[in-house]
Automatic annotation (TrEMBL):
Keyword Repeat appears in the UniProt entry: yes
Coiled-coil ranges per UniProt: none
Family, similarity comment: Belongs to the acyl coenzyme A hydrolase family.
Keyword Hydrolase on entry: yes
Sample GO molecular function, one term: fatty acyl-CoA hydrolase activity
GO biological process, one term: acyl-CoA metabolic process
Domain HotDog ACOT-type: 68-190, 265-382
Protein name: Thioesterase/thiol ester dehydrase-isomerase superfamily protein
Domain of life according to the entry: Eukaryota
Record keywords: Hydrolase, Repeat, Transit peptide
């Protein structure tokens, strides 16, 4: 029987997942994993004695396209698993599913259908952008669909769309609730060096347009990295001094400091955890979606404590996966509000940074594994109850804090231009 590319997340006909006992899975990741069980078995237990893939195939976006359906309207158990306090879908759990789907799509594209070669080791390199376009109700059916939009030598861009039928008051075409772009990279399972992936040939006009846009974004980022470093440093020093001028007043003359501002260090929160086997992926390392989920929860709490009003998620600006996180690692998540934008009283913006550190007390070492950047605003009902409340300006107290703010502002401006 031919396997369908559509998958029902709460299908009762599927057998329980048994390929990787103890590995992290949700109803969606179970469904995804069982779709291509033979392919996933090879990835879960690769033979390093097998030769690498030598012949690159040419595939189309439609060959990797997948759709996941959430029957929230008819499945009470599934609905309760994803319900948040405001009767909307939990964004943190959705992040897990988006990462799982993007990973499965990359596996489908990179598979050479030759079971005598060793599979590639595919990892999430970054989340380029994730934008919430409208609230996602937990009472209406939901679908996530995605496919490859661009391929480099060893990297791939996957675009995902979360869609939900519009309400009666919305436009008929207003069905896309969230869009996300993931970047995956391929490595050789034996050498862990970058490995070439199958080529991608777009067919439809939309696929060609998405491919060209992704190619332009890739070139823009490379040109930005290779830009005039001296010019960037000079501009950065001027901005650093401007930001630090107000921070110095807080440090040297706190009684005279602006009460509508707050030091960055006063917005910090922190969370620590031990990474357990239940959160591992098919490669045996901690599932990237789990890390995003935990980072989102901390970022949300940080925005809530900072604003004094219930925040509302808008965007994942960027996520960087710098190093893998292993089972048993002691992970520390540290968050802060980097900066705010309150020019618009209707939608003030709160930009939150979360940095994940893998800490090894026995070696007296700590290493950054991930950087997450989120944007929140204030929920409309919370703003109505607190009429007149203002979002405070965040100022740095050190040069290092000022540079982090400037770097993120510059990156956001590049993202805006690229989009």
């Amino acid at each position: 029987m031919e396997e369908s590319s559509d998958c029902d997340s709460n299908s009762s006909t599927k057998k329980p997942l048994s390929l990787w006992p103890g590995s992290y899975h949700s109803p969606v990741t179970v469904a995804l994993s069982e779709m291509k069980s033979r392919t996933f078995e090879r990835i879960a237990a690769p033979s390093l004695d097998e030769p690498p893939q030598t012949v690159l195939l040419t595939r189309t976006p439609s060959e990797s396209r997948m759709t996941i359906i959430y029957n929230f309207s008819s499945d009470f158990t599934l609905r309760e698993q994803y319900r948040d306090p405001w009767n909307e879908v939990r964004i943190g759990k959705l992040l897990e599913d988006l990462d799982a789907l993007a990973g499965t799509i990359s596996v489908k594209h990179c598979s050479d259908d030759d079971y005598t070669t060793r599979p590639l080791y595919l990892v999430t390199a970054s989340v380029d952008k994730m934008v919430l376009k409208k609230p996602i109700s937990v009472d209406l059916d939901l679908s996530i669909s995605g496919a490859l939009t661009w391929v480099g030598r060893s990297s791939m861009e996957i675009q995902l769309d979360v869609t939900q039928p519009p309400t009666q008051s919305a436009e008929a075409t207003d069905s896309v609730a969230l869009t996300a772009t993931f970047i995956f990279v391929a490595r050789d399972y034996k050498t862990l060096k970058s490995a070439p992936v199958n080529r991608l040939t777009p067919e439809t006009e939309r696929e060609k347009s998405l491919y060209e846009a992704a190619e332009a974004r890739n070139k823009l980022r490379k040109s930005t990295i290779k830009g005039d470093k001296k010019e960037i440093e000079n501009r950065g020093m001027n901005s650093v001094e401007a930001l630090l001028s107000e921070g110095r007043i807080f440090c040297d003359m706190p009684a005279l400091a602006d009460r509508d501002s707050i030091l960055l260090r006063e917005t910090r929160l922190e969370n620590s955890l031990i990474c357990h086997p239940q959160q591992r992926n098919i490669h045996g390392r901690i599932f990237g979606g789990f890390l995003m989920h935990r980072a989102f929860e901390l970022a949300f709490s940080t925005a809530y404590a900072f604003a004094g009003m219930m925040p509302s998620f808008l965007e994942v600006d960027y996520v960087d996966f710098l190093r893998p996180v292993d089972v048993g690692d002691f992970l520390r998540l540290k968050s802060c509000v980097l900066y705010t934008e309150s020019e618009s009283s209707d939608q003030p913006l709160i930009h939150v940074e979360v940095v994940a550190h893998v800490t090894r007390p026995e070696f007296r070492s700590t290493e950054v594994s991930n950087r997450f950047y989120f944007t929140f605003t204030i929920r409309a009902e919370a703003k109505a109850k607190n009429n007149g409340s203002r979002i405070r300006k965040v100022v740095p107290a050190t040069e290092e804090e000022a540079r982090r703010i400037i770097e993120r502002m510059d990156a956001a401006s590049v993202d805006l231009y690229a989009s």
